[in-house]
Amino acid sequence: MRKVRTIEMQRLTIEEFREADKLPLIVVLDDVRSMYNIGSVFRTCDTFRVEALYLCGICQTPPSTEIHKTALGAEDSVSWKYFKTTLEAVAELKKEGYQILSIEQVEHSTKLQTFVPQKGQRYAVILGNEVKGVHQEVVDISDGCLEIPQLGTKHSMNVSVTAGIIIYKFAETLILRR
């Protein structure tokens, strides 16, 4: 086997990316403090053509050297918005008809392996702070919560890793299995 060279991959230009059909998903970061995590989420959003990334609260925004270091330019292709609070972002998303799903360990959560995104539905997933998770008041107004089963000793995963798993679940069901 031979590794494929970058030039052979025929990736979209930023202009083509902006015009291309998107995964009907908005990723919302609730007080994520690490700019490296934010950059990594930008890059994953680019990979799967996520509709947008919403940065809320203490999240830093582009331009940022630290975000760019892990985003590798995805902050230029992925549409993003900043909100002072995640509650403001959720209010806007609800008005626009998005189903709001917090990614959190809560009573009666839906395990990710049983969740099936529905075609025609637009979704917003909320990922929380590296230490405290999604704010309880945001969980309270969510339409549901998704939980990634964990089999080890730790109670959580890195937020950027979690974003990758969640985004892939949506992409696999809504785009990749067409």
In short:
By secondary structure, the protein is an alpha/beta fold. It has helices at residues 14-19, 35-47, 65-71, 74-77, 86-95, 136-141, 159-176, and strands at 23-30, 50-56, 80-83, 99-103, 110-111, 123-128, 144-147. The chain has a seven-stranded parallel beta sheet with strand order 3-2-1-6-4-7-5, sandwiched between helices.
The end-to-end span amounts to 27 Å
> Per the principal axes of the C-alpha atoms, what is the gross shape?
globular
Count of extended strands: 7
The unreliable regions are none
Major sheet attributes: 7 strands, parallel
Return the average pLDDT rounded to an integer.
Answer: 96
Tally of individual helices: 7
The percentage of residues in β strands lies in 15-25%
The Rg value, from CA coordinates, equals 16 Å
Give the structural class.
alpha/beta
Helix and strand sequence:
HEHEHHEHEEEHEH
Assembly state of the chains shown: single chain
| Helical fraction | 25-40%
- Strand arrangement within the widest β-sheet reads 3-2-1-6-4-7-5
